[in-house]
Design goal:
alpha/beta; FAD/NAD(P)-binding domain; seven-stranded mixed β-sheet; 7 helices; binds NADPH dihydro-nicotinamide-adenine-dinucleotide phosphate
Length: 315
């Protein structure tokens, strides 16, 4: 028999969206309970320096910012817990959520802030430099600035890769784009823009064999043409991966409207999902902006929407 707990506001996920929702919900006396999930602090904990979040003129590290957001949420008595939500049942007016297969929570409102995970190639060398914060990144807008005046590599051929390659081209002396097929997946307009940019070199039919580096970080990549098998080394200090994101929404798919990639579809201009009382914030519903500040903004919206929903029930 699992233990059942009743809560007013359950927040799933602990990135900027979840913590901002918690700050607003706690200050509105909704006594939020927040479950951190597998990666407490979310994607930002894999980011070194955050320089584009307003309020930090000197910048802040991703982990430090998450510690501060958590402290701010706890200051207003958010109940922050570790635990992994494994199942939900949104069939009735009370939303049932199971944590770690054992604990059952009945929530009047649920705010989903489970985020998305960037996809990586999975190479050992790539993961090594990602872990040490030494030049591997999945976000050009976040990290491109650190490579200004330097050479970078970007992997991918979709709209994100094209957008990020173009972004990097304005900061870097040269951007080498590695495309595994002989064509882009991106829309023609985005691909054409990249093709027309002088300091972007596109290598089609090209796979990454290894990310190269030293004790300080990335120095380049060994790549192979998958038609000719010819290998070459490309010098670069930044290795960007833009091969897509996976929203962390699998457990909601039986209840919520998702798009074809799995992003939760919210009612435009709100955080409302198709289930009354269930709200979404952050990257779980956003494949376009994906920034800490936009996630925080939608976290605020979700808490306000949840508060108004509860008020409407009370009549
Ligand atoms: P996509 O899934 O569209 O593209 C992923 C790209 O990564 C593909 O080109 C794919 O190659 C490549 N890829 C996947 N795995 C590997 C691998 N192991 N090695 C090398 N390459 C790999 O993801 P995006 O993030 O680009 O876009 C997601 C959605 O967001 C899309 O619908 C897109 O249109 C949209 N978007 C729109 C923007 C805009 O309109 N401004 C901006 C950004 C995104 P392959 O083609 O060979 O399969």
């Amino acid at each position: 028999m699992s233990e059942i707990e009743r809560v007013k506001c359950l927040i799933i996920g602990s990135g900027p969206a979840g913590y901002t929702a918690a700050i607003y919900a706690a200050r509105a006396n909704m006594a939020p309970v927040l479950y951190e999930g597998m990666q407490p602090g979310g994607q930002l904990t894999t980011t070194n320096e955050v320089e584009n979040f307003p309020g930090y003129p000197e910048g802040v590290t991703g982990p430090e910012m998450m510690v501060q957001l958590r402290a701010q949420a706890e200051r207003f008595n958010t109940d922050v817990r570790s635990g992994w939500v494994t199942k939900v049942d949104f069939s009735g007016p009370i939303h049932k959520v199971w944590v770690d297969e054992t604990k059952e929570i009945h929530a009047e409102t649920v705010i989903i802030s489970t985020g998305a995970s960037a996809k990586y190639l999975g190479l050992e060398s790539e993961q090594h430099y990602l872990k040490i914060g030494g030049g591997v990144s999945a976000c050009a807008v976040c990290d491109g600035f650190f490579y200004r005046g330097q050479e970078t590599i970007i992997v991918g051929a979709g709209d994100s890769a094209c957008e990020e390659a173009h972004y990097l081209s304005k900061l870097c002396t040269k951007v080498t784009m590695l495309v595994r097929k002989d064509e882009f997946r991106a829309s023609k307009i985005m691909a054409d823009r990249v093709k027309k940019t002088e300091n972007i070199e596109i290598l089609f039919n090209t796979d990454t064999v290894e990310v190269l580096g030293d004790a300080h970080g990335v120095t380049g990549a060994k790549v192979r043409n998958n038609v000719t098998n010819e290998e070459q080394i490309i010098p670069a200090t930044g290795f960007f991966v833009a091969i897509g994101h996976k929203p962390n929404t699998d457990i909601f798919k039986d209840w919520l409207e998702l798009d074809e990639t799995g992003y939760i579809i919210n009612k435009p201009g709100t955080s409302k999902t198709n289930i009354p009382g269930v709200f979404v914030s952050g990257d779980a519903a956003d494949h376009v902006y994906r920034q800490a500040i936009t996630a925080a903004g939608t976290g605020c919206m979700a808490a306000l929407d949840a508060e108004r929903y509860l008020a409407s029930l009370e009549g």
